[in-house]
Amino acid sequence: MTGTAKAKTLIENERVIVTEYRFGPGDNTGWHRHGHDYLVVPMMDGRLKIVTKDGETHADMKTGATYFRREGVEHDVVNASDGDYVFIEIELK
């Protein structure tokens, strides 16, 4: 990914990849396609802008409210919060 968010791999093995994403205000992941099913675990409340080929939406994130997505999702994720934002992504291989 080529965005401005800071990605730190916490675990990578034959079954999972666990990555921490840290965003300053306005930081983004960069356009990407998910090659695996994945879960996102918000580490704090915040707001994200999700940019897809079909347009933009916003997601209000709540601490610990984990969600699941299937392989193939293509998007850019932008921190639309007033302050920093952090989530953990767990990719299932």
From TrEMBL:
Residues 21-90 form the Cupin type-2 domain. InterPro entries: Cupin_2 (IPR013096), RmlC-like_jellyroll (IPR014710), RmlC_Cupin_sf (IPR011051). This is Cupin domain-containing protein. It comes from Mesorhizobium marinum.
